[in-house]
């Protein structure tokens, strides 16, 4: 940490001095024909301390930074006189909203693709996932963002005018779904044919249902779909956490689903008074109920069952919340803010939007969708390929062969022994990427008109370098890099006990 602080100090000094020498902040005023030109130059000189050498002016900025220890944190003023602290705080909040959602989704989807392709190495699924990952990785982000605007936003908004899926599209999507699931699950020829037919027929039935009911205009899940999804989540979490043969964990997950279904209708009434704090509290409450159920069911493995219950409860409540958001979709899409075209192509929110928690949440989602998708697709290749290569390397280690020789089943070998160790190099990439993205996704924010750190940086370097906002951005980005590097070290020790022993 001390070394990191020294690096930040030296780097900030270099950035400050180089930025000061990269342009004259008085240039626009010197070329002005205003009558009070001299007065304006004097005001800006005093505001930015331009009468002090850049080599010494840095320490005036650094002194304002140190004032944070006495509650008077000050990063100076921008050229237009606005306090940099408020500018950076507003931009960082907007960027974090974008980066967190994009990074979490990229990690979950990318690592899942990487792990599954490693387990199905050199299959059609592996080759297809590899091709798709590198395809999106190689596409220029500005071009990808424009294509998302054209087809995901404008195209979908046009589709909502008459949400009917043509028979040809249903057939094509059903075939694609069958091929995807066939490649993921695999098996002998008979099993692969069955998977293809079941997946294709199910997809066709769902798409036909969407068309007949015009589901896209007034979407919802309802208690039946919530029940089916929750049961699927319960079995999947149990399978990954302890294995389906563990009756205690299985009973815990199913009990949590039962409790969630009992609470489904009372929650609908409570959702009418929803606030961010209330929903967050309910998430904690439902997860705690799951942990309690696991502790009571668990026996000697109660903590494993409690973990299963917590994850199941959290995901099930997320499904219930999603169902409630979907019920407010028609209210938002037909409002004056959306005007029948709900997927936004620019900005981070609708101006002057006033609505319920659910309507405001949908508005945030529609504005986040395109930039999040752009960052997600661009990041998938890195996470998926690193996790694939890492797991393949781990699966060839001696301790994996020993675990198999002991008679452990493949789920235990992969999840408990291989997966944790495979995450160590991936953790490094995630920490560095997330810290860098906090500095702003410049191209993405520019294309989508997102007022975040990237947009603030571009505005601060052109046409006149504005050193104080640039230093504010550097401070946030540099501090994030240090913090996430430390977090990566802590996660290493959590994933691999040998690291803790060595330390």
Shape: globular
In quaternary terms, these chains amount to single chain
- Alpha-carbon Rg, integer: 27 Å
Number of helices: 21
What does the main sheet amount to? none
Overall structural class, as computed from helix and strand content, comes to: mainly alpha
Which percent range fits the helix content?
over 70%
Distance between the termini: 16 Å
Overall number of strands: 0
State the order of secondary-structure elements, H for helix, E for strand. Answer: HHHHHHHHHHHHHHHHHHHHH
Instruction: List low-pLDDT spans.
Output: none
Please state the average pLDDT score: 87
Give the DSSP E fraction (strand runs of 2 or more residues): under 5%
Description of the molecule:
- The chain is mostly helical.
- Helix content is 76%, strand content 0%.
- The protein has 21 helices and no strands.
- It has helices spanning 2-20, 27-30, 37-48, 54-66, 84-119, 124-138, 141-159, 167-185, 189-213, 222-241, 247-270, 276-297, 302-327, 329-333, 357-395, 398-405, 410-437, 442-447, 453-461, 467-495, 497-502.
- Helix 5 (84-119) packs across helix 19, helix 6 (124-138) crosses helix 15 (357-395) and helix 17 packs antiparallel against helix 20.
- The protein is globular and about 85 Å long.
- The mean pLDDT is 87.
Question: What is the structure about, briefly put?
Answer:
The chain has 503 residues and is mainly α.
């Amino acid at each position: 940490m001390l070394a990191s602080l020294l690096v930040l100090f030296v780097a900030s000094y270099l950035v400050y001095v180089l930025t000061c020498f990269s342009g004259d902040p008085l240039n626009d005023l010197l070329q002005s024909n205003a009558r009070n030109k001299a007065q304006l130059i004097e005001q800006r000189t005093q505001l930015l301390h331009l009468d002090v050498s850049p080599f010494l002016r840095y320490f005036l900025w650094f002194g304002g930074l140190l004032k944070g220890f006495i509650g008077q944190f000050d990063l100076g003023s921008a050229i237009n006189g606005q306090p940099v602290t408020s500018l950076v705080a507003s931009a960082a909040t907007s960027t974090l909203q974008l980066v967190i959602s994009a990074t979490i989704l990229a990690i979950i989807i990318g690592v899942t693709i990487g792990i599954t392709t490693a387990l199905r190495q050199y299959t059609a699924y592996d080759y297809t996932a590899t091709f798709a990952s590198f395809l999106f990785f190689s596409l220029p982000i500005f071009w990808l963002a424009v294509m998302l605007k054209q087809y995901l936003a404008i195209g979908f908004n046009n589709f909502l005018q008459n949400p009917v899926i043509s028979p040809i599209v249903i057939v094509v999507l059903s075939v694609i779904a069958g091929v995807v699931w066939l490649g993921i699950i695999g098996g002998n020829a008979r099993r692969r044919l069955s998977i293809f037919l079941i997946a294709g027929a199910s997809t066709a039935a769902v798409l036909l249902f969407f068309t007949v009911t015009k589901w896209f205009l007034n979407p919802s899940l309802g208690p039946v779909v919530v029940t089916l999804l929750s049961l699927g989540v319960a079995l999947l979490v149990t399978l990954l956490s302890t294995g389906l043969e563990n009756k205690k964990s299985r009973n815990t997950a199913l009990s949590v689903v039962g409790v969630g279904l009992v609470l489904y209708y009372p929650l609908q009434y409570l959702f009418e008074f929803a606030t961010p704090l209330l929903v967050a509290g309910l998430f904690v409450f439902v997860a705690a109920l799951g942990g309690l159920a696991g502790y009571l069911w668990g026996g000697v493995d109660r903590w494993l069952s409690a973990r299963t219950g917590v994850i199941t409860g959290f995901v099930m409540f997320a499904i219930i919340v999603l169902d409630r958001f979907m019920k407010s979709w028609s209210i938002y899409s037909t409002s004056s803010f959306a005007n029948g075209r709900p997927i936004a192509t620019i900005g981070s929110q609708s101006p002057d939007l006033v609505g319920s928690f659910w309507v405001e949440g949908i508005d945030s989602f529609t504005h986040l969708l395109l930039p999040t998708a752009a960052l997600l697709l661009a990041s998938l290749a890195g996470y998926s390929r690193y996790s694939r290569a890492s797991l393949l390397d781990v699966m060839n280690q001696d301790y994996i062969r020993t675990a198999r020789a002991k008679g452990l089943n493949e789920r235990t070998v992969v999840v408990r022994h291989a997966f944790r160790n495979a995450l160590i190099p991936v953790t490094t990439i995630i920490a560095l990427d997330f810290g860098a993205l906090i500095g702003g996704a410049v191209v993405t924010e520019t294309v989508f008109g997102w007022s975040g750190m990237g947009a603030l940086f571009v505005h601060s370097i052109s046409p006149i370098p504005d050193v104080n906002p640039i230093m504010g951005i550097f401070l946030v980005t540099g501090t994030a890099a240090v913090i996430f590097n430390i977090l990566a070290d802590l996660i290493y020790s959590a994933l691999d006990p040998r690291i803790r022993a060595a330390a």
